[in-house]
Design a protein that fits this description.
- By secondary structure, the chain is an alpha+beta fold.
- A two-stranded parallel sheet has the order 1-2.
- The protein is globular.
- It has 2 domains: 55 residues, no CATH class; 68 residues, no CATH class.
- The chain is built from 4 helices and 2 strands.
- Helix 3 links the parallel strand 1 and strand 2.
Length: 142
């Protein structure tokens, strides 16, 4: 079982630590995200399950400093109950956080679905999510 206080995969943590000290060769990552081409060389030797676990447990670090850029023509956002530390309600999650994607999209549409941020695709929610998703594909004529 992963230990929230310590590293799940020391090899990944070593790569991340090496990256945080690197001065050049960046791939644009921040706050411990893998960002240098050289550090990627260690990844093939890492067992995949612990690597993904470490990535999942550290994704909040990556996301914290993420700054989107660029522009895309369309975006469909499916959202449920937010992470409590990010927003106290769905309304605030949509109005103060998710709506910011509209700054990078010509046509952004937001769709409320069942579940918590982490359980949108859980078995108990997947049927409604799939219906909503398929309806949006049809709406986009895809």
């Amino acid at each position: 079982m992963p230990n929230a206080k310590g590293p799940v995969c020391p090899e990944v943590d070593q790569c991340l630590e090496a990256d945080s000290e690197a001065d050049a060769g960046g791939w644009g990552g921040r706050s411990g995200a893998i960002k240098t081409r050289g550090s990627l060389a260690c990844l093939p030797t890492i067992p995949i399950a612990p690597w993904w676990t470490s990535l999942a447990l550290n994704s909040h670090v990556i996301a914290r400093d993420y700054e989107p850029s660029g522009r895309v023509p369309v975006l469909e956002v499916f959202y449920g109950d937010p992470i409590a530390d990010v927003a106290p309600s769905k309304a605030e999650w949509l109005e103060k956080k998710l709506s910011g994607w509209a700054d990078f999209v010509d046509d952004a549409r937001f769709h409320e679905v069942q579940g918590h941020h982490y359980t949108l695709l859980a078995p108990e929610n997947i049927d409604l999510f799939a219906r909503t998703f398929v309806a949006r594909l049809a709406g986009r004529r895809l």
